[in-house]
Recover the amino acids of this structure.
């Protein structure tokens, strides 16, 4: 299988910095030893066990009446781990009636408890095939780290078990995957490094920029609309309070008409020459109403707002039409035919 790293079952002796598998107690584990009362001393049996074992090596969990528990511990960095054993059957010792049990802990959590019974294995020359006893995979998305610990414990009740156990190898898929290797290093040669993809980096960079730009755009739009609304209100208020824009009748005293001395002034001439007009769009005319004192002296400015210029207050002697208190009107034929006498 590709990307599998094998931790050899043999202990690392003096001179090595770190053992691949730490056995405890060390005297209770025997490297490449044959079990007592197993019929594997003949040549065919020796050849078979060498062919079955990974790399031709194995390590027995040695039974002792006063040592009821032994352990093997290792660490690895990966996404899957598997443990292989070889079992030996004590065919020459019918009094071996005890049963051993294997416990597997991953990261100090019990994952499997397995009783080792002879009926589960197919023995040839008292040797079982290489057997996968424990396997566990890890979810990289749920695990905070890829570094894990594995602890194997073998126990017995004090009576020699009918089946002896021998650790063959511990194998794992390294994270990140590395080439096949067999060595004594406790940790894999490659260090797992998690790098975000380019698409994730792009999203993380672009998303804050787009968010800031959108907020700024909304703020500018709100400011523009508020300012425009205020300007419209200001213009409406100015138009509403400007006297020249208001409708109604304007009282124009005769004393304000310039050039009245020595000449007759008609309403038409005043409008055409002496008055300013404003042709701004007009609102609908207000209902007609007479000012206090009657209509004398008032001009209806519709459809123009007529703003009179100021004139000096003058009245030429001998003229018999009023110059104060009303607006000039054209003289009647009687006024022209019979001018008033002067003193």
């Amino acid at each position: 299988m590709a990307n599998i790293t094998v931790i050899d079952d043999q202990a690392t002796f003096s001179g090595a910095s770190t053992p691949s598998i730490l056995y405890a107690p060390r005297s209770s584990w025997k490297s490449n030893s044959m079990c007592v009362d197993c019929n594997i001393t003949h040549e065919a049996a020796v050849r078979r066990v060498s062919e079955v074992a990974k790399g031709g090596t194995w390590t027995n969990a040695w039974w002792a009446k006063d040592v009821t528990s032994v352990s093997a511990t290792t660490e690895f960095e990966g996404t899957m781990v598997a443990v292989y054993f070889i079992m030996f059957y004590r065919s020459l010792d019918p009094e071996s009636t005890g049963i051993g049990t294997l416990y597997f802990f991953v990261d100090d959590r019990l994952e499997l408890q397995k009783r080792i019974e002879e009926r589960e294995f197919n023995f040839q020359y008292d040797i079982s095939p290489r057997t996968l006893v424990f396997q566990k995979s890890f979810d990289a998305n749920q695990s905070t780290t890829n570094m894990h610990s594995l602890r194997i414990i073998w126990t017995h009740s004090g009576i020699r078990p009918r089946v002896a156990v021998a650790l063959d190898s511990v194998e794992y898929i390294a994270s990140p995957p590395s080439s096949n290797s067999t060595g004594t290093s406790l940790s894999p040669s490659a260090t797992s490094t998690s790098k975000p993809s380019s698409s994730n980096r792009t999203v993380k960079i672009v998303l804050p920029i787009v968010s800031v730009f959108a907020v700024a755009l909304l703020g500018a739009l709100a400011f523009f609309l508020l300012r425009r609304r205020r300007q419209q209100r200001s213009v409406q208020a100015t138009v509403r309070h400007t006297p020249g824009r208001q409708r109604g009748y304007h009282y124009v005293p005769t004393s304000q008409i310039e050039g009245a001395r020595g000449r007759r002034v008609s309403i038409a001439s005043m409008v055409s020459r002496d008055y300013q007009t404003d042709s701004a769009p007009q609102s609908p005319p207000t209902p007609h109403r007479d000012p206090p004192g009657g209509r004398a002296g008032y001009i209806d400015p519709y459809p123009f707002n007529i703003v009179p210029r100021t004139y000096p207050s003058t009245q030429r002697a001998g003229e018999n039409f009023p110059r104060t208190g009303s607006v000039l009107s054209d003289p009647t034929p009687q006024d022209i035919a019979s001018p008033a006498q002067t003193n």
Notes: The domain at 4-193 is CATH 2.60.120.260 (Jelly Rolls). The radius of gyration is 58 Å.
